[in-house]
């Protein structure tokens, strides 16, 4: 830094380039947030500036350095450096500041209104557009008990403020409150989080509260979620300022990323604000339980209140830097008998500097020396020890809910839970369940335990059978003490709403031999009274129901203990919320009105599943869920919060639109998006397309198509499955018109080729008619250009159809889907303070990034699945800050396995992404795995998370010999057996010093520890 520059010039020259929109939610020039529809755009424009700022060093300013003060002129604020007479320091060259936009009716910093007695005025800085209005709600009768229908309407004060005055005498205690924006269309946008007003903390009966709107998408909000506040960050405190006898102003501001010893300070114009003297700034206070830094000051007699926040090092006794932004802040001048409380939101400081790494693995895949052939909740503790040892901050797991529908290996699919709340019994640690009297029984199953634990994969049925048999043995002697305990009673009371129905459902499933409640001879329809009777003491079903209470209680204790252990090591645990529930599970039985049981959820075709995916789940009845404020979802989030700090929303695109498949279809290709704006029959004529219902909506089956699909078996297919329909075409016989009918025909036949050929005939259509539209509304089949039907059209018709197809999928729906998501996600996000990450993969609508950024939901970025259509690979260096980057997920092959799948892709990746010349190695050598891991660690993304298989891939000694054995799931196979296990014990991993040291060094050098 050149020595000839003044101190002020040094500060301004090296101060990080922060976002043009300050973190407190204000727009440059007027300090007022615009309406939320524009906030997204402003936030996006500033993202690069935020990232730039996070990479720049903080500026250390010499003691005694001064900040420009601004003369109190209403039109243009001109900055000048305080003179020697004002600060006792030498005068330095003056510099103009950026003009400040002001209301025509009011001068900044000058209070002109008279003060009312016993009044609190709430004033929000917010620039609205015509048709918008603001409301105040809070957790008190006066403020409507958080009910939007009872919210207090605010008044438009000027282009920068809305206001409302309340009788202070009616606010007896501290109250939480927030602001709500009503949009032109009648929808509501909430000020993020809650603010607190405590009348007892003010020495005045006349209070002016000035607040800043907190946009949910501001990066800093992430750091006030539970994992950061409760686990990763310590509770910062500072108390060095005594409150003056007279208080005219209270300043509040948030700053989540301060380093050890750093505190927020305040400097400004006038003697009371230290005349910008950085040698002795005013230091703000913070209690451990508070989010805000705060300071009470007496500015009596000062007619202009202009200030700025800074950072002060209390250890070195040195001023570090001013907050960013080109403008200073203003507050109303003091008025006798009034206290002004100014909430400035977030200090404008680097907000993308915190980064960390994590490991992802299903609990069932963990392997320890003492486990029973499957990972258990208690095994997480050893994984925590390893993660702590190498510097990881997160453990991410797959869903752990009970999937026991058939008691066969097909239940291994963790996303088909029979309960959205109950935990899977296979995760029980039997040794911890057995009391001292029953410990000896463990010896009887020790040989079987060793046999199962020696298996390279999970023996799902044998593991579950062994564990359930043991529980049935010890339950009679342990049930009384368990159910009488205070802890169990508290657990039961908190979980009764799902626990009793689940336990009864499990009993009836086993009693009737199926989880399909439609086939039960009794209790097909859920009834509270009948369920209570079946669980009642004295009935023959009592113990068979109550044993599930016993199991779930111990699962709860063990998972809670494991996550608390992780917290003690400053490691967070991230869970997973599946997008669907099992069709024949307790949620569908207990709450059928919440689901559309006549369709199936899935996903459209992609590179990983060319015929789409059919998950079999019912879709959600969102309209019904909305009626009770999405209570079922809120209960799910509450249940997750018992154990997890963060969670991944599986297929977050489902909150925008879901891929809905008729029940008579087998393949996902037969589905369509719901909701979706259909194509009206008139649109075909308007675009010059001749519309023929049978040609577009019925499978096209000709002699040439049959030969292409079935080859030499054409005559066999004609005779068994087809009938002539005229015009040298064929139609499917009535008994084979649907894929489900074909599936049933082949249930006892081994002829996959013929079956899939018939599936292809059935899906060889262009349009699906919307049910009930009487031939007027239609939806395109996905991927029409790949159908044999489409290929039979002439070139002109193909062109016109493709134009309409593109309009249908990629143009007309986007705004509609955005509205759908904004009706669901904001309310669900407000119901929890966990960190939320969205799995936003697949065919992503344009509105998805906007909505996720707007709500501060982290995205998922995968190197092999770029969201930009013109790119073959995504580079981790291009990741947004609020994201998770990973080289692979459980639905994909691992890095090593992928490397061998497609030599063309591998070669392009090797040359273009790894920047290596020549031919790519045939196998993914350890140095290649290292290079990919380092790319992700050095990404600007907040989180880099790796499957444990990919981390082990950097070690030639530790990694598995055959990478194809590392895969967890094949999405294209609905009957995939989820039985992947680690190939080495975690105890051995902990002892692998060379590997652990190398990985720890990589994590540390990336700044993620």
Q: How would you portray this structure in words?
A:
By secondary structure, this protein is of the alpha/beta class. The protein contains 31 helices and 38 strands. The strands form nine sheets. An eight-stranded parallel sheet has the order 35-27-22-21-20-38-37-36. The protein has a seven-stranded mixed sheet with strand order 6-7-3-11-19-12-15, with no helix packed on it. Strands 4, 5, 8, 9 and 10 form a five-stranded antiparallel sheet that branches. Strand 31 and strand 32 form a beta hairpin.
Cα Rg: 32 Å
**Cross-sheet strand order for the largest sheet:** 35-27-22-21-20-38-37-36
Largest sheet: 8 strands, parallel
Number of strands: 38
Q: What's the overall geometry?
A: globular
End-to-end gap = 31 Å
Mean pLDDT across every amino acid position: 88
Given the helix and strand composition, which structural class is it? Answer: alpha/beta
Give me the number of helical elements. 31
Share of helix, binned:
25-40%
């Amino acid at each position: 830094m050149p020595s000839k520059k003044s101190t002020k010039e040094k500060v301004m020259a090296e101060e990080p380039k922060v976002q043009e929109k300050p973190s407190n939610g204000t727009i440059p020039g007027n300090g007022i947030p615009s309406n939320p529809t524009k906030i997204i755009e402003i936030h996006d424009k500033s993202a690069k500036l935020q990232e730039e700022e996070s990479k720049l060093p903080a500026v250390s300013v010499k003691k005694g350095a001064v900040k420009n003060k601004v003369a109190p002129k209403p039109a243009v604020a001109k900055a000048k450096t305080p003179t020697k007479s004002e600060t006792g320091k030498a005068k330095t060259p003056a510099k103009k500041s950026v003009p400040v936009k002001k209301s025509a009716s009011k001068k900044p910093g000058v209070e002109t209104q008279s003060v009312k007695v016993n009044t609190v005025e709430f004033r929000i800085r917010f620039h609205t557009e015509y048709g918008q209005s603001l409301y105040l709600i809070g957790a008190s009768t006066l403020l409507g008990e958080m009910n939007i229908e009872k919210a207090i309407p605010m008044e438009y004060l000027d282009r920068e403020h809305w206001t409302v005055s309340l009788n202070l005498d009616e606010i007896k205690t501290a109250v939480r409150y927030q602001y709500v924006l009503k949009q032109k269309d009648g929808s509501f946008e909430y000020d993020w989080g809650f603010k607190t007003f405590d009348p007892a903390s003010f020495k005045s009966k006349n209070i002016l509260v000035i607040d800043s709107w907190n946009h949910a998408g501001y990066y800093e909000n992430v750091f006030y979620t539970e994992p950061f506040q409760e686990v990763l960050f310590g509770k910062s405190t500072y108390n060095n300022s005594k409150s003056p006898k007279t208080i005219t102003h209270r300043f509040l501001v948030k700053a989540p990323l301060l380093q050890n010893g750093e505190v927020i300070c305040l400097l400004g114009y006038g003697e009371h604000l230290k005349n910008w003297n950085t040698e002795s700034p005013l230091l703000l206070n913070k209690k451990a339980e508070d989010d805000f830094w705060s300071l009470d000051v007496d500015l009596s007699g000062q007619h202009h209140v202009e200030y700025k926040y800074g950072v002060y090092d209390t250890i070195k006794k040195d001023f570090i830097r001013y907050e960013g932004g080109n403008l200073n802040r203003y507050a109303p001048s003091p008025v006798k008998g009034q206290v002004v409380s100014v909430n400035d939101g977030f200090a404008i400081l680097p907000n993308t500097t915190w980064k960390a790494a994590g490991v992802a693995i299903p609990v069932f895949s963990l392997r320890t020396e003492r486990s029973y052939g499957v990972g258990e909740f208690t095994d997480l503790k050893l994984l925590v020890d390893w993660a702590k040892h190498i510097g990881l901050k997160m453990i991410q797991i797959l869903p752990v809910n009970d999937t026991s529908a058939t008691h066969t290996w097909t239940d291994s699919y963790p996303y088909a839970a029979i309960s959205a709340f109950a935990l899977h019994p296979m995760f029980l640690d039997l040794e911890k369940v057995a009391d001292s009297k029953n410990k000896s029984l463990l010896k009887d199953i020790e040989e079987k335990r060793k046999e199962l634990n020696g298996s390279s994969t999970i023996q799902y049925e044998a593991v579950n059978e062994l564990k359930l048999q043991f529980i049935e043995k010890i339950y009679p002697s342990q049930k009384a003490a368990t159910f009488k305990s205070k802890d169990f009673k508290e657990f039961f009371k908190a979980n009764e709403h799902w626990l009793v129905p689940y336990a009864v459902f499990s009993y009836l499933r086993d009693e009737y031999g199926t989880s399909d409640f439609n086939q039960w001879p009794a209790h097909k329809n859920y009834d509270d009274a009948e369920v209570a009777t079946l669980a009642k003491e004295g009935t023959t079903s009592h113990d068979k129901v109550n044993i599930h209470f016993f199991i779930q209680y111990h699962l709860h204790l063990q998972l809670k203990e494991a996550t608390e252990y992780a917290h003690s090591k400053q490691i967070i645990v991230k869970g997973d919320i599946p997008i669907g529930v099992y069709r024949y599970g307790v949620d569908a039985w207990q709450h059928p009105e919440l689901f559309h049981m006549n369709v199936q959820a899935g996903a459209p075709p992609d590179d990983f599943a060319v015929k789409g995916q059919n998950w079999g789940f019912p879709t959600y009845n969102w309209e019904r869920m909305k009626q009770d404020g999405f209570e079922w979802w809120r209960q799910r989030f509450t249940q997750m919060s018992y154990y997890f700090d963060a969670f991944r929303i599986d297929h977050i695109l489902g909150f925008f639109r879901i891929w809905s498949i008729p029940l008579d279809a087998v393949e996902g290709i037969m589905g369509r998006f719901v909701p979706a704006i259909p194509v009206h029959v008139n649109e075909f004529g308007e675009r010059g397309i001749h519309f023929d219902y049978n040609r577009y909506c019925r499978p096209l089956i000709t002699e040439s198509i049959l030969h292409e699909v079935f080859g030499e078996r054409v005559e066999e297919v004609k005779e068994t499955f087809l009938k002539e329909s005229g015009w040298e075409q064929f139609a499917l016989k009535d008994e084979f018109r649907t894929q489900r009918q074909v599936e049933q025909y082949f249930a006892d036949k081994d002829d996959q080729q013929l079956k899939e050929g018939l599936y292809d005939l059935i899906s060889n259509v262009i349009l699906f008619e919307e049910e009930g539209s009487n031939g007027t509304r239609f939806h395109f089949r996905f991927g029409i250009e790949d159908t044999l039907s489409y290929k039979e059209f002439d070139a002109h018709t193909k062109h016109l159809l493709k134009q309409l197809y593109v309009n249908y999928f990629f143009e007309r729906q986007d705004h509609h889907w955005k509205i759908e998501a904004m009706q669901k996600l904001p309310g669900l996000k407000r119901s929890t303070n966990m960190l939320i990450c969205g799995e936003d993969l697949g065919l992503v609508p344009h509105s998805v990034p906007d909505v996720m950024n707007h709500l501060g939901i982290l995205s998922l970025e995968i190197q092999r699945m770029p969201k930009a259509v013109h790119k073959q690979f995504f580079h981790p260096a291009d990741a947004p800050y609020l994201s998770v980057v990973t080289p692979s997920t459980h639905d994909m092959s691992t890095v090593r396995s992928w490397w061998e799948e497609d030599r063309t892709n591998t070669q392009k990746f090797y040359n273009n992404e790894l920047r290596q010349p020549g031919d790519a190695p045939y196998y993914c050598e350890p140095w290649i795995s290292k290079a990919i891991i380092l790319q992700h660690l050095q990404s600007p993304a907040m989180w880099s998370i790796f499957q444990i298989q990919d981390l082990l891939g950097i070690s030639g000694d530790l990694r598995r010999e055959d990478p194809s054995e590392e895969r967890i799931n094949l999405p294209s196979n609905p009957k995939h057996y989820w039985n992947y296990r680690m190939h080495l014990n975690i105890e051995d991993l902990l002892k692998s010093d060379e590997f652990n040291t190398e990985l720890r060094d990589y994590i540390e050098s990336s700044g993620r520890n």
